Amino acid sequence: MGNRKHLLFSSAVALGLLASFGAVAQDRFSCPQQGGDLVVGLEAAAGTLDQQTATSSATRNIAMNIFEALIIRDENMRPVPDLADSIEPSADGLSYTFKLRQGVKFHNGKPMTSADVVASFDRYKTVGVSRSILEAVAGWSAPDDATFVITLKAPQPNFLENLSSSTAPVVIMPAEEATKAAGQIDVIGTGPFKLGEFVPDSHVRLDRYADYTPGTTLTGLSGFAGYKQACVDTVTFRMLTETAARMAALETGEVHIVESVPAISMERLAAVEGVELLTLEAYGLNIGYPNWSAPPTDNIKVRQAMLAALNMDEIMEASTDGVYKLNPSLQFPGTAYFSEAGGELYNQANADKAKALLAEAGYNNEPIVLLTTQQITTMYNTALVMQAQLQAAGFNAELKVFDWPTALATSEKETTGWNFFFTHWTGSAAQGGATTLRNLAAPANIYKPQDPGGDPDYNAAFQRVQGGATIEDRAAAFADAQKTVFEHVLAIPFGVMSNVQGTRSNVKGFKPFYNTRVSNVWLEK
Amino acid sequence: MFGYIISRLLQAIPILILVSLIAFGIIYLIPGDAAVVIGGPSATPEELAQIRQNLGLDQPLHIQILTFYAHLFQGDLGRSLTLGIPVVDALLARSPITIGIAIYSLVLTILIGLSTGMLAALNHNRWIDQAATLFALLGVSLPNFWLALVMIVLFSVHLGWLPTGGYVPFTKDPIGWLRTATLPAVALALMQAGLLTRITRSTMLEVLNQDYIRTARAKGLPEWIVVGRHALANVMMPIVTMIGLVLSVLLSGSIVIETIFGVPGIGSLLGSAISNRDYPMIQGGLLFVTTALLLLNIVIDLLYTSLDPRIRVRGR
Amino acid sequence: MTDLVNEPSRLSLALDSARHWVKRLSANRSFLLGAILFGGICLFTLAAPLITSVDPNALSVRNRFKPPSELYLFGTDNLGRDMLSRVLNGARLSLGIGFAVVILNAVFGVFLGAIAGYYRRLDDLLMRIADALMAFPAVLLAIGIAAALGPSAATAIIALAVVYIPRTARVVRASILVARELDYVQAARAAGARDGRILWHHIMPNCMAPLIVQLSFVFAYAVLSEAVLSFLGLSAPPTVPSWGVLIAEGRTYLREAAWLTVIPGLAIAITVLGLNLLGDGLRDVLDPRMKVEQ
Predict the structure, then answer these.
(1) Among A386-395, A486-495, B66-75, B257-266, which stretch is predicted with the lowest mean pLDDT?
(2) Residues of chain C with C-beta less than 8 angstroms from the C-beta of B288
(3) What is the pLDDT of residues B105-133, one digit of tens each?
(4) DSSP-assigned letter for residue A277
(5) Which chain B residues are Cβ-neighbours of A254 within 8 angstroms?
(6) Chain A residues with CB inside 8 Å of C256's CB?
(7) Contact criterion met (CB < 8 Å) for C151 and A321
(8) Spatial CB neighbours of C211, under 8 Å, sequence gap ≥ 6
(9) Is A136 on the interface with B (CB under 8 A)?
(10) Among candidates A284, A441, A303, which has minimal Cα distance to A360?
């Protein structure tokens, strides 16, 4: 655990140290066995593999085995260099120098140089979905083939945290691809696997990239980064959206790895010969937020009454079929920004208090419209149980059910017609810090405050999360922001959802993560 | 005949315009757009705005509509928002998959329906008849998605005969195609076969009571010749009707089966186009499917006339 | 079948013929069995409030996935809701949707079919429109409507009506083409009767038999198709369960809690089977010439 100590310093400095520290490490991973076709059953169909322009996990699960970024997140979702061997911040905090990993070739055989990095960043600036992470950047340059320098307008202590965002990572592609429009690139990366075949709504086949040059700062796989090796010849990602069919495919051995095993199937599948279950304990945050513009949730007392009425145990039990953890936080337990500030308001299950607050608010049986979708079962069941609990506490709660795009667009565009919206924070919660909080801050303001400036207390804390000089400062600011979230009810986190994944027992080396990683995974013969 | 075909084709044009207007009406009414789907639950409004800009969705809808028609007249259906490839390419890549399974399923339908129907008619009012009738009725009484799920459990998990889903192109591996296409084809065929069984049975019963059949029998012709030559010929008409119906159901209504078995056909393409709010794909797909079905109708009508000269071209 | 051509204005004759049909229908095995199955389902549906007073949407998180037992006759679902109550209450919606589609079919199918069959100048146009509707992928239409308005019973009803009205119109049109050539219809026309009167009093009664048969099949298909639309999340909102919604919700638990899908599946199968038998029986008795359409 020597590496962890260094992270106590400012993360930027730590990264440089970590890089040089890891380089001397021995015992790098090597594939115990090679060959075979690894088949992965995904629950959602990926439309595009253009990683810079997509935020969906469906795309990431496949594309992040093809592409790599300069800096990305490790197993604990901390920033870590990947296509860079080292990252040196300047003393004034205004520039960052990336030394590129040497000997790296794209899947088209051309060597990767800083020109490709510049072109990829240029592209991200115009089509990259999370391009706001580059807001603080004044410019970038390539002093030589192996060096890339980013200059900031003003020091931003959490810049590397932002830059390493794994939502839509700034992946590096050949300069000639980087001129192409969103969704229209030839999928060429530097990763251990290259694209073989993409049949939308059916499958994606990846082939081992023989000329892959792994990063050597770590000795094994860590998060999105690390010392990666392709052990299998090919990987077939099959898009199996029908849960029962996906589970059947695991049972028959047609697929080796499946996502999202329903809780009720766990016992039965665990007993099936040749099937093993792995759990990613903290996969996502089951969360919802009120609409501050629409009466009666424009009234803080009504919102506090809602929060008081909820029994999170019951909500989580029903919505996840029992695979969950209660969690009075916007972060996952054990992570850098984790805090229980304001947590006493979580899981109150106090109908009497709710009724008293409602009376105080002068609530007159106005309808509380819970906006959700039946397409995502967890959200839908959360809404159902919440409706029952609110009704029991004297709310006139009703459901409004749409398909996902309509529900989300309604919550995004309409300030009336709904009072509470249900969603999941997966990657954004896992990445922590400002990434988690950004949705609730101005200008995103998903809770629709009447003042476009948003909740002043929250935004003040959010600014400190963005600008805090050290991780401790930022974590303290995070706690303040979270306290406001609970007290003013900007959002209501229900609990942490786990994700159970199933594998065949001949699959070795596979670890559940926020992404499906097929490097360093081998098939035992 | 040639004039008839031309006039039918011309009649199709207003229908197609109507369909494309309906499609626009739907698109106009549906809240939510492709950006919302691509962005997913935790996308920030800012990220959604970026995706919209990438996709050209920041244009007002009427501009998008005008652009669509401008391109349409140049034979260009535009580019899919989610797949990033031209709509025409996607349709051409997907339709052979659906057509292949549709034909397989049609063959199964005819084999099962015809034989059960004839068996029932030839054993009128005996137990075989009743069993066949029951089979036919059950076939049309069970929801086929339920049947599909049960078949996966039975034939894939318990018996291990066939894979649970997926698709292998026929050109690449005919055996693999047969293995993956069989369950979807059977699931689609069972309902249609039930219908065909009933049609065959009632047509046969009617024909077998006709005078010329009695005469043929009285002349001492073997039963199989009587049935084969005279009765079967009369069953052709309803079968042609069935082919039309079955193909139109299979071409447009196989979304459910394609979804369950993970078959990347035209049904799943259009289904996900709508749930992904992929406007160009919805537009192009609807026009494509409607055109295909209209052409199919014309062919069926022509088949009718050539099979039965008594029927004049419809509408006269 | 000249006995089909009855003079409807004479009450006694009509009563006679009604008795005649009842006698013939009750002798038809298929009709009887169908009537028993479908009648039984209808009876249970109507009697639902007497059988169970449990709220079909009442959650009981502690009682999730209880298999069928004395306490829960049909078991409970993933949120502990009582399946007996859900299936019985779901029947109302499933049959209600079917019935609404039948009514729409009767009204619009007869209207369009009659116009097309009687006013031959409009025939070509109307039949082409029918072609267009039959060519339009109805499932996609339903997906579109549901996406715009949210899933609702109305979505399913509209989509299914659009699919079946052209077919019903064709059946009506075909029988009108025959009926308008009948002697007494020609006579009425020669006597200067108005079109509406001829259509309503002289021609329509002759179309009733095939229409009733057709509608019984439409009912069956509507119940079945509603389930398919539910599977795609396009029919009733899940708060008001229909049988299709129940199967769609239960399908994830097919292996572990089979009762969630098997019981509503059987309910659909019995209803559709009953309606098909009913339709077969009606056809045998009322109009033996007619073949299965659809």
Answers:
(1) B66-75
(2) none
(3) 889 988 998 889 888 888 887 888 888 88
(4) E
(5) 163-164, 166
(6) 264-265, 268
(7) no
(8) C106, C109, C110, C168, C171, C172, C175
(9) no
(10) A303
Domain ranges of chain C: 36-290
Name every chain A residue with its beta carbon within 8 A of the beta carbon of C239.
384, 399, 401
The residue to which tokens 């069926």 are assigned: B300
Residues of chain A with pLDDT under 50: 1-25
Percentage of chain B beyond pLDDT 70 is 90
Question: Subunits with at least 3 CB pairs below 8 A relative to chain C?
Answer: A, B
Cross-chain residue pair C254–A317, CB shorter than 8 Å: no
Decide the pairing of beta strands A37-42 and A234-239: parallel
Scanning A317-376 for CB atoms below 8 A from C yields: 317-318, 321, 374-375
Q: For C219-267, how does the pLDDT look when each residue is reduced to its tens digit (9 = 90+)?
A: 988 888 888 888 777 777 666 788 888 988 888 888 888 899 889 989 9
Using an 8 Å Cβ cutoff, are A501 and A278 in contact? yes
Q: Nearest CA to A238 among B162, B38, B275, B165?
A: B165
The shortest C-alpha distance from C9 to chain B (Å) reads: 33
CB of B260 closer than 8 Å to CB of A242: yes
Residues 12-31 on C with a CB inside 8 Å of B are: none
CATH number of C36-290: 1.10.3720.10
Quote the ipTM score. 0.82
Does the residue B283 lie in any domain? no
pLDDT, tens digit, for every residue of B22-36?
777 777 777 777 888
A291-348, pLDDT tens digit by residue? 999 999 999 999 999 999 999 999 999 899 888 999 999 999 989 899 999 999 999 9
Is B10 part of a structural domain of the chain?
Answer: no
Q: Is C255 on the interface with B (CB under 8 A)?
A: yes
**What's the number of domains chain B is made of?**
1
Q: Is A423 on the interface with B (CB under 8 A)?
A: yes
Question: Does the residue B288 lie in any domain?
Answer: no
Q: CB B42 to CB A427 under 8 A?
A: yes
Whether B30 contacts B275, CB under 8 Å = no
Length of chain B in residues, anyone? 316
Contact B274 C294 (CB under 8 A): no
Subunits adjacent to chain A (3 or more Cβ pairs under 8 Å): B, C
Percent of chain B surpassing pLDDT 90: 4
Q: What is the DSSP string of A310-326?
A: --HHHHHHHHHTT-EE-
* pLDDT value of residue A109: 94
Interface test with A, best of C255, C259, C262 (most A CBs within 10 A): C255
Among C122, C123, C136, pick the best mutation site for testing chain B contact (most B Cβ within 10 A). Answer: C136
CATH code for the domain of B148: 1.10.3720.10
**Cβ-defined contact of B41 to A426 (cutoff 8 Å):** yes
Q: Give the list of residues 6+ apart from residue B60 with CB closer than 8 angstroms, or none.
A: none
Determine, yes or no, domain membership for B122: yes
CB-based contact A403 C151, cutoff 8 Å = yes
Average pLDDT, chain C: 81
Instruction: State which residues form the domain around B188.
Output: 90-278
Task: Check if A408 contacts B (Cβ < 8 Å).
Answer: yes
The single-letter code of the amino acid at B116 is: T
